């Protein structure tokens, strides 16, 4: 895996805030596709409403008639010692009954970035599509883009007090969008849709999480129409390897090779250090894992990957094929977008096939 010498390609300073009183904290975890003569990144942009050592402002969307509008909740730390402020991404507390209550310190939306060469990107000035559902009242995160025939489908994590769910959009031109609503209910995210039907069904990797017991692991599901999903079964679990003993989930949209489907996935250890691995899936039966990397193909090593809004994290939502080279776009430290290239030969070598 060769990191781009221009990394990081896109950072918070390249992004215009969605409103004057907000600060862009990061742009990361982008879905990727080719559209006409450009490479498009559908990016997750994270903004905060301001926070200091004394207080945190929580941005949320609230109902306003038949639409949603932004509101800001102020939490003064010294007045609320029951809250845990140790994680930069959220504040939490537990009720006497053991129920966990969470507020996110930032609000994410989807934003387009465009490039002719896949390296120099221009970020649009406004969100690609505004949050509109109550299930998005805490934001829209981690999009994946899959092209099926002449339509681009964008699935993303819809976040609200109800939990993280997965929603779906579609477009043909990245100007007009159709909403298809929630396709996987909370808590389920890291959804990756295969780019064509296999044996008469669409397939998707996803990660449901039980609040009672069990690890956050990958499942696989089928659908006749991309909306209604069933035949859910466990697909891949965490391993004893130190780099993926905490949780795993889908990363980039799979792509088909002569040996089968290649899937880049993310994994985290018990210290929340995020790495990227790869697996090979059977071309006709994608629920069958033929090979899986023993070591990460990419792990946080550079300064821009180890330091940031949430350090020690590399996380992909998309890649783009250029001949025998795969351009893997990834979020680094939850605040910037980077690229690394890897050849098919290198992937097969890492998979020992």
UniProtKB/TrEMBL annotation:
E.C. no: 2.4.1.319
InterPro entries linked: Glyco_hydro_beta-prop_sf, Mannoside_phosphorylase
Name of the top EC class for this enzyme: transferase
Single GO term (MF): glycosyltransferase activity
Keywords: Glycosyltransferase, Transferase
CDD domains: GH130_Lin0857-like
Top-level taxon in the UniProt lineage: Bacteria
Pfam families (alphabetical): Glyco_hydro_130
Similarity comment: family membership: Belongs to the glycosyl hydrolase 130 family.
Alphabetical list of PANTHER family matching this protein: GLYCOSIDASE
Official protein name in the record: Beta-1,4-mannooligosaccharide phosphorylase
Native source species: Caproiciproducens galactitolivorans
């Amino acid at each position: 895996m060769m990191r781009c010498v221009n990394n990081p390609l896109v950072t918070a300073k390249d992004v215009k805030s969605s409103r004057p009183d907000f600060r862009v904290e990061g742009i990361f975890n982008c879905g990727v596709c080719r559209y006409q003569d450009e490479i498009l990144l559908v990016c997750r942009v994270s903004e905060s409403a301001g926070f200091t050592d004394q207080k945190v402002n929580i941005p949320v969307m609230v109902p306003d008639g038949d639409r949603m509008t932004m509101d800001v909740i102020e939490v003064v730390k010294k007045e609320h010692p029951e809250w845990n402020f140790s994680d930069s991404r959220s504040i939490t507390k537990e009720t006497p009954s053991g129920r966990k209550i969470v507020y996110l310190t930032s609000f994410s939306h989807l934003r387009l970035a465009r490039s002719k060469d896949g390296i120099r990107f221009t970020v649009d000035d406004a969100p690609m599509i505004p949050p509109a559902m109550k299930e998005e009242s805490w934001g829209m995160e981690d999009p994946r883009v899959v092209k099926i025939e002449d339509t681009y489908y964008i699935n993303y994590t819809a976040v609200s007090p109800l939990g993280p769910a997965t929603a779906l959009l579609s477009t043909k031109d990245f100007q007009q969008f159709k909403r298809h609503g929630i396709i996987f209910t909370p808590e389920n995210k890291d959804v990756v849709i295969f780019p064509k039907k296999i044996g008469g069904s669409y397939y998707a990797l996803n990660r449901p999480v039980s609040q009672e017991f069990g690890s956050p692991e990958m499942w696989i599901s089928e659908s006749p129409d991309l909306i209604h999903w069933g035949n859910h079964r466990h697909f891949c679990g965490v391993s004893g390897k130190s780099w993926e003993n905490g949780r795993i989930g889908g990363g980039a949209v799979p792509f088909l090779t002569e040996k089968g489907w290649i899937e880049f996935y993310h994994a985290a250890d018990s210290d929340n250090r995020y790495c990227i691995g790869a697996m090979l899936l059977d071309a006709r039966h994608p629920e069958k894992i033929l090979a899986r990397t023993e070591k990460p193909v990419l792990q946080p090593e550079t300064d821009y990957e180890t330091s940031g809004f949430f350090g020690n994290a590399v996380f992909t939502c998309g890649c783009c094929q250029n001949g025998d080279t795969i351009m893997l776009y990834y979020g680094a430290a939850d605040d910037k977008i980077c690229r690394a290239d890897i050849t098919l030969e290198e992937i097969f070598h890492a998979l020992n096939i």
